[in-house]
Design goal:
Keywords: Molybdenum cofactor biosynthesis. Its EC number is 2.10.1.1. This protein is an alpha/beta fold and 169 residues long. Helices cover 47% and strands 17% of the residues. It has seven helices and seven strands. Strands 1, 2, 3, 4, 5, 6 and 7 form a seven-stranded mixed beta sheet that branches. α2 crosses α6 and α3 packs across α4. The longest helix has 22 residues. The radius of gyration is 15 Å and the shape is globular.
């Protein structure tokens, strides 16, 4: 599985604040998916909070990724435009994953209600927005990780039915 991580942050892009959530996400993906994943050369791409920059990074990463996970830019501030850029790119929404991430996060903090994260599909690439904090990235990854392999197998039309069989047992 080829996974790309994109951090959306004006200050991290400008070099005035260290990116913490992107590297944490890379670490979680590497640790969880082990040899089954390639994460964009071990470090996230960092882009500013601008629709065009986010959109372009998503489109570029769709060429070589099965999964793109963004971190940052999902809140209420005027510069938080990751969902808008994502909506320009995705062809189909994945509302179940959106609801699952929101619900799981809401069980840990009421602040999760302030996330506008989007999940969708472009071609055979799954695009997932996560909030920009390390804590939120961990919480959202806990929700996404158990279903990710199956989701990608379905998108690539390589599902052999074993996941459905496990659920019946």
């Amino acid at each position: 599985m080829r996974v790309s991580v994109i951090t959306v942050s004006d200050s991290s892009h400008a070099g005035t604040r260290a990116d913490e959530s992107g590297p944490k996400l890379v670490e979680l993906v590497d640790k969880s998916l082990k040899v089954n994943a390639t994460v964009n050369a071990g470090s996230p791409t960092v882009v500013p909070d601008e629709v065009a920059a986010i959109r372009d990074a998503l489109l570029e990463n769709c060429k070589n990724s099965d999964v793109i996970i963004t971190t940052g830019g999902t809140g209420f501030s005027k510069r938080d435009v990751t969902p808008e850029a994502t909506l320009e790119v995705v062809e189909r929404r994945c509302s179940g994953l959106e609801i699952a991430m929101h619900t799981g996060s809401l069980q840990k903090t009421p602040m999760a209600a302030l996330s506008r994260a989007i999940v969708g599909i472009r071609g055979s690439t799954l695009i997932v927005n996560m909030p920009g904090s390390v804590k939120a990235v961990k919480e959202c990854w806990e929700i996404l990780e158990p279903v990710l392999n199956h989701a990608i197998n379905l998108l690539k039309d390589t599902d052999d039915g074993t996941e459905h069989q496990k659920m019946k047992e």
